[in-house]
Amino acid sequence: KAGVTQTPRYLIKTRGQQVTLSCSPISGHRSVSWYQQTPGQGLQFLFEYFSETQRNKGNFPGRFSGRQFSNSRSEMNVSTLELGDSALYLCASSPWGSYNSPLHFGNGTRLTVT
Amino acid sequence: AQKVTQAQTEISVVEKEDVTLDCVYETRDTTYYLFWYKQPPSGELVFLIRRNSFDEQNEISGRYSWNFQKSTSSFNFTITASQVVDSAVYFCALTPGSNYQLIWGAGTKLIIKP
């Protein structure tokens, strides 16, 4: 089975721009969750989607949004980028959800905002 | 408060030594899940173990073992006869039953020297 695929691997954007990150989950997995990882704040939960519905959301501003498609692929969008948004963004999939299931992670997208 | 504390920022040992990574959690919930994940230098988080709040049995998997003690709110991880390949950042995480959001510890960087 193919693992979780995140594209692109690296992105460099300018402050004020917007960016879209993509995540393809493991086949058959209906839950996709997103996490931000920075040296200062560590790993933080962004949101979780299950069957195209946002099931849970972390404490991030509205500039961070996401969606899930009928094939379970997910995208995350960040608008009006700020320098502090520079981070590794990780996507994870699981069959039923992040509450009690082991998560399968992608390699992440490293976003640099200049 | 819901929180996971990994007090050890970095541990360095010589190969074949045993090493224990500490994890202390806080939650008001009676139902919750605890996890350990490993993040090697490649960046991809790898699931190691899951434990629910009603199962205090210790677990052993090869050189890895976990000690879950509700009385001290701890879920410690021991690697026996460490190997260089064990070098990674290890994260402990908690999913409280009240909000289903995965809460991460800050991680412990483990360095195994040959």
Helix content of chain B: under 10%
Major interchain interface with per-chain residue totals: A-B, 25 and 24 residues
Helix fraction bin of chain A: under 10%
Radius of gyration of chain B: 14 Å
Strand content of chain A: over 45%
Into which percentage range does the β-strand content of chain B fall? over 45%
Notes on the structure:
The complex is a heterodimer of chains A (114) and B (114). Chain A is built from no helices and 11 strands. In chain A, strand 4 and strand 5 (42-50) form a beta hairpin. The N and C termini of chain A lie far apart (37 Å). Chain A has strands at residues 5-7, 10-13, 19-24, 31-38, 42-50, 53-57, 64-68, 74-78, 87-94, 104-105, 109-113. In chain A, strands 2, 4, 5, 6, 9, 10 and 11 form a 7-stranded mixed β-sheet that branches. Chain A has a 4-stranded antiparallel β-sheet with strand order 1-3-8-7, with no helix packed on it. By secondary structure, chain B is mainly beta. Chain B is built from no helices and 12 strands. In chain B, strands 2, 5, 6, 10, 11 and 12 form a 6-stranded mixed β-sheet that branches. Chain B has a 4-stranded antiparallel β-sheet with strand order 3-9-8-7, with no helix packed on it. In chain B, strand 7 (59-61) and strand 8 form a beta hairpin. Chain B is globular and about 45 Å long. The N and C termini of chain B lie far apart (40 Å). The model of chain B has no long low-confidence stretch (mean pLDDT 94). Classes of the chains: A mainly beta (114), B mainly beta (114). Chain A binds chain B through residues 33, 35, 42-45, 48, 55-56, 58, 88, 90, 92, 97-108, and chain B through 33, 35, 37, 42-47, 50, 52, 91, 93, 95, 97, 99-107.
